[in-house]
Description:
globular, carbohydrate metabolism, binds NADPH dihydro-nicotinamide-adenine-dinucleotide phosphate, alpha/beta, single chain, 15 strands, glucose metabolism, binds ligand LXAUTJHC, 6-stranded parallel β-sheet
Amino acid sequence: MNKEGTQFDESFPHIFVVFGASGDLAKKKIYPTLWWLYRDNLLPKKTIFFGYARSSLTVREIREKCTPYMKVRPDEEQAYEDFWNINYYVSGAYDSRTDFEKLNQEMCTFENGLHANRLFYLALPPSAFQSVSVNIRNACMGQKGWNRIIVEKPFGKDAASSKALSDHLASLFKEEQLYRIDHYLGKEMVQNLMTIRFGNRIFNPTWNRENISSVLISFKEPFGTQGRGGYFDEFGIIRDVMQNHLLQILSLVAMEKPVTCHPDDIRDEKVKVLKSIKSLELDDCVLGQYVGNPDGKDDDAKMGYLDDPTVPAGSKTPTFALAVLQIKNERWDGVPFILRCGKALNERKAEVRIQYRDVPGDIFGGRSKRNEMVIRVQPGEALYVKMMTKSPGITFDMEETELDLTYNQRYKEINLPDAYERLILDVFCGSQMNFVRDDELSEAWRIFTPLLHHIENNDVQPIPYVHGSRGPKEADEKCDKSNFKYYGSYKWNNSKM
Ligand SMILES: NC(=O)C1=CN([C@@H]2O[C@H](COP(=O)(O)OP(=O)(O)OC[C@H]3O[C@@H](n4cnc5c(N)ncnc54)[C@H](OP(=O)(O)O)[C@@H]3O)[C@@H](O)[C@H]2O)C=CC1
Ligand SMILES: O=C1O[C@H](COP(=O)(O)O)[C@@H](O)[C@H](O)[C@H]1O
């Protein structure tokens, strides 16, 4: 059962179909997730899995491709065999109705005329979305149970293409059948944002422009495109991470309290806050592209973005972006929300920093530093609040310290599930709380489309930054100008870790 009390129909068979079963996402994420859910007895008992792709493959070959990602413990060998015994594979073209009819026949044989539910996962490149969705609608919909379609990003490239895709899907399926995945919504600390904000009395009264100076939401990755540059170059870091993952986090940080925890009440509030954000302009941004570091520790670090042979020569696609968003509503007017993301930076990290304003009426001679609440999404989930304290002992000095909730200290026995595990389970349960609704998506594109077109049409030259650095120095300067202060004086006592 999930949070809203939705349960799966345990008594009915369920068929989970992976389109693009031969691909990267399927082997690295989807099959491992299905195996973990099966292993942990979280799926309805009578669930089976179908893979579908163009390649002529067997289940054994898919199993071999997935092996490095499945994390099977020695005592799980039998369960692992059982899992693969309920896997099937059909090969066919994505644009052939006859091939989809063949898949349907195989599913019908299993269902034997009884009530059964079907889930379709589109782990496919955007070029295949159109024909696959039409063929699912025409040839693969179960007649007696429900049908749910899980769609992976990119949901278009700008407002117009996203609308075309949304209209296309809406002509085939109802909104309640569509599950648009943003896997950041499945991460523990992202899911925790609602509880932190609305389950505590202490934070909410200060969660506003009177008390908060700025909010910084960051995503950093320490590696470059690693041969995936051809795909990346078509989209760039804004479409890859900022327009979806970071904006989703922003909406959970900034939205008003929903009327209830019902998925549509939450998504109504997310849409409302997005509507209060004006579209971005070039001046709101800093864009960067990484260059190789000759002293880098490995080949990836030595390679610049343009050295990736799959990237078109002279590409100006940004691999780093910082954008300052303004929310024009009563709670947030004047508080910069800074979104920052980049590849080939100095560390792997995703976090939210809520920085408070200076204490008014200072009596400490300017020694007080701003409070900051840090919600670390990864790695090592944590929530800490940086605060001032009197230095312990016979002194009236003051120092920076923290109130600290570090998950691996506080919750030693808990193994946090992977984001995809939570989200796929939500689809079985019928909960759309952590999936992107069509109106949310269209607001997200409204905010970014003019900027994206501007970047593309005006040929903006990104600022070079060295692989493994913190990104362009102009980004730090922009944070500073946007009322986010970095003191460089805070010391973390990590002997506790
Ligand atoms: N519970 C826990 O696990 C806790 C862990 N810690 C750890 O302690 C360490 C320090 O804490 P932290 O909150 O980062 O505090 P700091 O004040 O040290 O740093 C804040 C952030 O400022 C950014 N920064 C670094 N250099 C510059 C610069 N020259 N100009 C502008 N910004 C800069 C860095 O992020 P960026 O590069 O992204 O801009 C950094 O993370 C961290 O490693 C943190 O994870 C602290 C408290 C609790
Ligand atoms: O969606 C994406 O996310 C990954 C990062 O995901 P994470 O869960 O490992 O933080 C990113 O590498 C990729 O470029 C992007 O498309």
